[in-house]
Amino acid sequence: MKDMEKAVVAVGGGAVLNENTRHFLRENSLVVWLWANRETTLQRLHHDMRRPLLRGDKARIVEELLRTRIPLYANCSHLVVPTEGKSPEAIAERIRKEIDHGG
Predict the structure, then answer these.
(1) Can you tell me the distance from the alpha carbon of 41 to that of 38, in angstroms, rounded to the nearest whole number?
(2) Model pTM score
(3) Strand ranges, E, within the chain
(4) Dihedral of CA 5/12/101/24: which sign?
């Protein structure tokens, strides 16, 4: 990543669990956190059967993941973009505007 001039890299949600990864991301990139509340997250994951971590009581699991990860996301993010009720295009435009204006 250090040698990349312009790129979008999507890391998995668990990437923030590693302190070294958080530090590296924060120091070597612009980290944009696409934030969604619990209800939106559950709605988006309702039919997702590909994530082994979410097998079982999704509501309880998501609640626990958010409780433990939100402080970590907050620690390494430069920009937080709420996503509730917004189209991908609107979210991308918001990010572009924030970057153009220096966050």
Answers:
(1) 5
(2) 0.81
(3) 32-35, 79-82
(4) negative
Structural domains in the chain? 13-84 (3.40.50.300)
Which residue's entry shows tokens 């994951």? 45
Please tell me the predicted confidence (pLDDT) of residue 4: 67
Query: What is the 8-class DSSP label of residue 77?
Result: -
Strands (E), 25-83: 32-35, 79-82
Contact predicate 69/16, CB 8 Å: yes
State the amino acid at position 47 in one-letter form. Answer: H
pLDDT of res. 69? 93
Q: Is the dihedral of CA 7, 9, 101, 98 positive or negative?
A: positive
pLDDT in tens, 8-65: 888 888 899 999 999 999 999 999 999 999 999 888 887 777 777 777 788 898 899 9
Return the structure tokens found at 71. 């402080």
Token duo for residue 26: 């924060």
Q: What's the pLDDT tens digit per position in 68-83?
A: 999 999 999 999 999 9
